[in-house]
Specification:
The protein contains six helices and two strands. By secondary structure, the protein is mainly α. It has a domain at about 5-55. A two-stranded parallel ribbon has the order 1-2. The longest helix is centred in the first third of the chain and has 10 residues, at about 30-35. The protein is rod-shaped. It starts with a strand and ends with a helix. The mean pLDDT is about 75.
Length: about 100
């Protein structure tokens, strides 16, 4: 037993534009096919034709470009440890080493 379209929309609080987008319905014929599969009586074409104007086929977004890792190295540095300049070959002091130096003096 099928349910009338108007009852379904009111009962479930359906946003018709979102309903059409989520089911990829861009024509009245496509909507009728979907509704019949879901046991819902389709509305007349006149009742829903204004909603098809707002639903447009959206293109898939372009894939993101891959970087060569130049940005990722800056992000991977620990926030507790300052980033070192690769040109300077100065070793970082360790906490254990700094404690021994103060004891020797």
């Amino acid at each position: 037993m099928s349910m009338p379209w108007n009852y379904y929309v009111r009962r479930n609080g359906v946003n018709i534009t979102e309903y059409l987008k989520s089911r990829n319905c861009y024509t009245y014929k496509e909507l009728c096919e979907v509704l019949l599969r879901e046991n819902i009586e389709p509305p007349t074409e006149k009742e829903v034709e204004r909603f098809f104007a707002t639903v447009k086929k959206s293109k898939k977004p372009a894939p993101k470009k891959q970087t060569l890792g130049t940005k990722s190295t800056a992000k991977s540095a620990s926030r507790h440890q300052p980033a070192r300049d690769p040109k300077i070959k100065k070793p970082l002091k360790k906490k254990a080493d700094s404690g021994k130096e103060s004891e020797q003096n």
